[in-house]
Design goal:
The chain has 287 residues and is α/β, with parallel strands linked by helices. The protein is 42% helix and 17% strand. It has helices at 34-42, 51-61, 76-86, 106-115, 128-136, 153-163, 179-189, 213-222, 242-254, 259-270, 274-286, and strands spanning 18-22, 45-48, 67-69, 90-93, 120-123, 143-148, 169-175, 195-199, 207-211, 228-233. It has a five-stranded parallel β-sheet, with helices on both faces. A five-stranded mixed β-sheet has the order 6-7-10-8-9, sandwiched between helices. The longest helix has 13 residues, at 242-254. The chain starts with 17 loop residues before the first strand and ends with a helix. 37% of the residues are buried.
């Protein structure tokens, strides 16, 4: 077959007007789906959190489209302009990473589009919360996604106290600089519940570390975390004898702290006597 005879694929038709919610990779660019690529190629424009971040993805895919910023700071008039565009154009909505509307402002746009009777289509894909649940090994028959914990100590503690009574795995997003503060608050509210810290998911330095919260505080104080984090708290478990619980917490804390530090950490989390915990920590260290 000569070069002139090589069949040329016909151009794909444009998408019907409406809003297309497109999930993008959370780290590894290979996680983009074929349907997401097709949608980004066929749409008229892309609404995104950060045009620089989305621009890199589009360049990687070899796609050029108008990029319209739509983020936490978007005002009502920005949303109104997008709604008007949806009447005659196909607009893809993406976040910086993962599935739009999971801890981002996209739900306001979706609600506005539905209120106007405009089509809304979802193109599913990567989601950090789901990836964290899968890799953690914690019970996942049911779970509660609670977004980001509050930045202020009192608000964070109040929220955890409220959630402590829920018998299910709790899922949060967290930033590396706030990780130890959140783990400390979890240790105070739910000291005996197993915690998983899943970070840098799908990336080169992916890690999932599990343990009781006091032990994880000690670990990450000694080994500061980097990257994006999914923080998971397992459901309540009856550990039985309190001494067994204290031993488990001390062993976890000793992985990243001296006996005195481990005892202090567990004492703060449980209210148990620090001197007794220190003596027990020395015994466990010698085992």
């Amino acid at each position: 077959m000569s070069a002139e005879e090589v069949p040329v694929e016909p151009p794909q038709p444009a998408l019907a007007p409406g809003l297309y919610i497109v999930a993008t990779p959370i780290g590894n660019l290979g996680d983009i789906t074929l349907r997401a690529i097709e949608t980004l190629r066929r749409c008229d424009a892309v609404a995104c959190e950060d045009t620089r971040v989305t621009g890199k993805l589009m360049k990687h895919l070899g796609i050029s489209k108008p990029l319209w910023r739509y983020d936490d700071h978007a005002e009502a008039r920005d949303r109104e302009r997008l709604i008007e565009s949806l009447r005659s154009r196909a607009v893809a909505l993406v976040s910086d990473a993962g599935t739009p509307l999971v801890s981002d402002p996209g739900y306001r746009l979706v609600n506005a589009a539905r209120a106007e009777g405009l089509p809304v289509t979802v193109i599913p894909g990567a989601c950090a919360a789901i990836a964290g649940i899968a890799v953690s090994g914690l019970p996942n028959d049911r779970f509660l996604f609670a977004g980001f914990l509050p930045a202020k100590d009192k608000a964070r503690g109040d929220m955890l106290a409220e959630l402590a009574g829920i018998d299910t795995t709790l899922v949060f997003y967290e930033t590396a600089p706030r990780l130890t503060k959140s783990l400390t608050a979890i240790a105070a509210a739910m000291p005996y519940r197993e915690v998983a810290v899943a970070r840098e998911l799908t990336k080169l330095h992916e890690e999932c570390r599990r343990g009781l919260p006091a032990g994880l505080v000690a670990w990450y104080e000694a080994h500061p975390a980097r990257g994006e984090i999914v923080l998971l708290v397992g459901p309540p478990v009856d550990h039985g004898n309190e001494e067994v619980d204290a031993d488990a917490m001390l062993r976890a804390a000793l992985a990243g702290a001296k006996p005195s530090q481990a005892a202090a950490r567990v004492a703060r989390a449980t209210g148990m006597d620090r001197r007794e915990l220190y003596a027990r920590a020395l015994e466990l260290q010698r085992e």
